[in-house]
Amino acid sequence: MKVLLAALNAKFIHSSLALRYLRAAAEGEFDVLLREFTIKDDPLRVLSEVVGDRPEVVGFSCYIWNVVETLKIVRLLKKVSPATRVVLGGPEVSYDTWEWMERWPEVDAIVIGEGEATFLELLRAWRDGGDLGEIAGLAFREGDRVKIAPRRGWIEPLDAIPSPYRGHLEELDNRIVYFEASRGCPFHCQFCLSSIDDAVRYFSLQRVKEDLARLIDYGVSQIKFVDRTFNLKKDYALELFQFLARYPGRTVFQFEITADILRREIVEFLAAEAPPGRFRFEIGVQSTNEETNRLIRRIQRFDRLAGTVRRLRESGRVVQHLDLIAGLPREDYRSFRKTFDDVYALEPDELQLGFLKLLRGTGLRARAAEFGYVYMDEPPYEVLANDVLPYEDVRRIKRVEDMVDKYWNSHWMDHTLRYLRAWEFSSAFDLYQELGDYWDRQGYGTLGYQPEDLFLRMRDFLRDKGLRRPMVAEDLLKIDYLLTRRVRPRSPWWVPTLDKGGAGVGPEVGRTAGDSGPGVCPAGTGGDGVVETRRLGVGEFRCERMDSGPTARGGRGSPSGGGGVSSRWTGVSGFGVEVEGEADVVCGSSDERGRCGRHPQMRSGAGWTIVTSTRFWRSFFKRFGVCMGDSTGWKRELIESTSAWMRWSSAWMRWSSAWMWSTSAWMRSTNAWMRWNSAWVRSSSDWTRWNSAWMRWSSDWTRWNSAWMRWSSVWTRSNAAWMWSRAGCPLSKSG
C-alpha cells in the first residue's frame, strides 16, 4: 500500500518533524513518501503533485497556521480521487474531533494525540481489513456514523519510537531542523496546549547525542528544539549544552527556556564557554502582571528571570528572544504598557509581541465567557477584545508590535533607540506607540519599504514629534545608518552642511592650541602644554570616584584637592589609531557635592588628554552619572559607542588613501604605456590619432580624480565639524 505524508509548512525553510516520525514508524512495512509544501503554494499545484504520486492513503499534519489551507486541498483531492483515503493528525484536530469529522465528510480518519503507534495500526487495519474500533486514539467513520476510540496512553520509553533522522538527510538542505529531547510539560499555563500533557518523558542522552552528531556532521545550519521547557531537568540540560558547545561544527541551536529556573551552574557555563552565537534562547515572559499570571496559572519569578537574561546578555554569547502576549485576562492597556517596559528594559536581542489565541482544548477557551473574550471563529482564533481590553486598544498595540519588529528586532538603529528611550520618551512603549501611530497617519503600513526608508521615516517622525535635542537624535540616526548599511542611500542625507564662515569647523589633525580658532580648548593645568590636537570618540568608559585628598588632581579652575574620577578607557582617534590607557577624569569647578564645572578633563597614561565640555556630558550621558555624584563617592559604568562615527570616518579615509594609491599606479601604468606607444606611433599614424583620443580621456580621468580628492577634503572638514558639534573640544597630546 502506497502512503503519502504531506504538510503545508508556514515557510519553505521549515520542516515537519511529525511527518518524519510517522514515516520512520511505518516505512519498514509500507511504501511511504513525504512531501512538503507551503501555505502560499497554489492549491491546484499541490493537488497535482499529490495525485501524481497515486497514493492509496494521504496523511496531512494540521496546525492552526495551515489547517484552513490543508482542508481546501482535502476537498479538492476527494473530488478528483474519491477512493483515496484521507487521514488527519496534529494538535489542531486532536481536540473537538467530533466537530471536525462532522464538518468535513471528506476526512476518513483522525489520529488523536501521539500518532506513531496509532498511525501504524491504522495502516495495517486498512491493508488487512482489520477492525478500526480496536485502535486507541482514532476517530473514524463506520457507515454514516462517526466513532471515536479512547485516547491512547503515552508512549514509554520514548526510545521505542524510531528516530526520524537516521536517513533522508538530503531533504533537510537549506531548512530548519526541528528536534525534541523530551515530550510533555509540568506547567499548567491556561493558554497553552502543552499544559494538557503534564507527563514529562525523555529520550535517552545516548540516542539524542547520536542523532545530533549525525545532523551536525551532515552540515544542517539550524536545529530548533521543540521541548516545552528544555532546562526542566538540570543535569540532562547541562550535559547537552556541554556536548553541543564542544562538538565541532557551525550549527546554531535554539531552545525554549524557562529562565527563572535556569540553574546558576548552567548560566555560568553558558556565559563562560558557549561559542558566541551558537545558542539561541526563546524565553516566554508573557506578562509581569501578578494577577494575570495567577489567573492563567503561570508561576514565574520575574526578578530571577531578569537576572538570568542580564547575565547572559552581558556575556555576549547567547542570543535571547523574549515573548509577550497581549490580551491575557485582567491585563488592560495600562498594565500591558508596564509589562512591555519591564521586558524591554532587559534589552533582549529580539522581542516578540504576540496576541492571545484561544486554542482548542485550552483552559482559557473553556473560560472565554468569564473574561468577555471576543475572538476569531476560525484559526488562528486570535483574540479581538475582552472585558478590560477593547478592540481599539488591541489595534493600537498591533501598531507597537509592528514597530518593535521593524526597528528594534532589526538592530539597524540601536544607538538612536536607546537615546530616544533615555531622553525623549517617558517609556519604551510610548516611543513605539507614537511611532506606530505616525506610520498609521502617514499610510506607511500599506506601502512597501527598503531599509533606507525605515531611517527616513524615523527621521521624519522625530521632526514631526519635536524633540528636546533633535540634532543629537538625527546625528545618532546617521551613525546607525553608516554602521549597519553597506549600500549607499538614494540620497546622502547624512552629510552635514558646513558653515561658510568656517565657524562650524572643529580642530583638525596637526592643529595646535596656539592656532586659536573656534572650539580649541586650552591646556589643563599641571605642566605640559598642548603640542597638537586629535579627535577621539570614547568607545568604552568605566570609572569610579576617587577619595578626596592631597593626591587628587585638580582641574582647570577647581579648588585644591577637588575629587576626581579614576578610569580606564579605550577609543579610536580621528585617523584610525586605537588608544587605551589609565586616566584621571578631573571635574573642574567641582562643588561640595562633586558636581562638574566647565572643563572636565581626562588625562591618560598613554599621554593623551581628553578635554570635553560639561554641556556635552550632561546632554548625552546625564542619566549614567558621569562626573556627577554625591560627596560620599560613587561607582558607575558607562559603555557607549560614540566612537562609531570616527571608526567609519577612519575607514573612509583609508579607502580614499587606497583609491589614491590605485590612481597613482594607474598613472604609472599610463606612463609606461606611452613610452611603449611612442615606438608604435612611428609605424602607424592611425594608431597615433587613436592614442591622442586615449590621452584626452586620460586627462579627463585626472581632472575627475582631482575633483574626487577635493570632495574628500570637504568630507574630512565636514566630519571635523560634526565631531566639534557633538563634543565641543579636542583631544590633545601632551608634549
Structural class: alpha/beta
- Note the total helix count: 20
Shape: globular
CATH superfamily of the largest domain: tm_1862 like domain
What is the name of the CATH architecture of the largest domain?
Answer: Alpha-Beta Horseshoe
Give the quaternary arrangement of the chains. single chain
The total count of strands amounts to 25
Strand order in the largest sheet:
18-25-23-22-21-20-19-24
CATH T-level topology of the largest domain: pyruvate-formate lyase- activating enzyme
Structure description:
The protein starts with a strand and ends with a strand. Strand 11 (222-225), helix 7 (234-246) and strand 12 (252-257) form a beta-alpha-beta unit. Helix 1 packs across helix 5 (116-128). The chain has 4 domains: 2-153, Cobalamin-binding domain (Rossmann fold, 3-Layer(aba) Sandwich); 162-389, Alpha-Beta Horseshoe (pyruvate-formate lyase- activating enzyme), CATH 3.80.30; 395-494; 507-676 and 708-735, no CATH class. It is an alpha/beta fold and 735 residues long. The protein is 40% helix and 18% strand. Residues 496-649, 678-688 and 723-735 have low confidence and may be disordered. Strands 18-25-23-22-21-20-19-24 form an 8-stranded antiparallel sheet. The chain is built from 20 helices and 25 strands.
